[in-house]
Amino acid sequence: MKFNPFLEAIKTYESGKDIDLIAKEYNLKEVIKLASNENPYGTSLKAKEAIIKNAHLAHLYPDDTMIELKQALAKKFNVLNENIIIGSGSDQIIEYAVYAKLDHMKAYLQCGVSFAMYEIYAKQVGAKIYKTQSLVHDLEQLCDLYQKHKNEIKIIFLCLPNNPLGECLDKKDVFEFIGKIDKDCLVVIDGAYNEFASFKDKNKFIDPQELILNFQNVVYLGTFSKLYGLGGMRVGYGIASQKIINTFYKLRAPFNVTNLSLKAAFAALDDKEFVEKTLKNNFSQMKLYEEFARKNEISYIESYTNFITYFFDKKNSTDLSEKLLKKGIIVRNLQSYGLNAIRISIGTEYENSRFFEEFLQIFSL
Fold first, then answer.
1. pLDDT of residue 146
2. Which of 24, 34, 96, 260 is most solvent-facing, going by the fewest CB within 10 Å?
3. Omega into 164 within 30° of 0, i.e. cis?
4. What region holds the Aminotransferase class I/classII large domain (predicted)?
């Protein structure tokens, strides 16, 4: 049987390893997952209560207008309901963007290393991909590549802060860059970790309202999977001009987000105490990872997210990851990105202590 030839170039997305499977495979009593950037403090109590309270709705299709969550997001960001689309994770909104703008005659642009799903979705439609030589976001290189191939490039992805590297641009530089882009090119600001960045440095904060008021060719993406601890519920959102949102709706399947997911996300938005605790603990524990790296002469990029990436010269990241697995610690090996590096989600104090203890023994061999 023949399939679309574009699919031959696609590598299947490598998701984080499952805790139960690793426990069985290596006969472990305890497994710590520091691979998928999930919230180590679980889900907010308010979100849990909303899931339990609304469990009786599981047999019903959700309200396809998603008005309750839209209104809450509209209030939070001071935009209109019509400026918002809800997706099954923010990566579903990425898919809408790709299908709305790209085909085998067009291209998208990104920095050297960024979220894998940009490339996967683009290859599904046979689109061409341009990447900077710089691994991180270098706006000069991005601008040069755009000007050179502007007739082809119809989407620019800016992951702010960047997954899987962790660096982040200042808002003023981002706005200046967007001002140089033609109005027919869609700029996607992937803000999956932007709450973390803006907590650490207010200069990194990108306000969706300010963004869409200044630029009609931009969509801002957010998610409930990271800070809000709802990775398993799969809720993301896009904020853009009504024209962009209306176009994306033509690509959206009905009932794409479940009843319980919508209720949990709505409740999570209201749990400011849980959010504050997550942000404070994340960056206090992040300092320990930075100190550990400096002490052991491990290279890293300053991170504005809930993870940190370690780079290696003499050690092999695949070998290190596999040895950690046998100790019951799951990290993300970045060999699939062409990097001899591991990405480590910032865990609880106990989880991080376990990582330092086990990794030091492995790294010292």
1. 98
2. 24
3. yes
4. 30-356
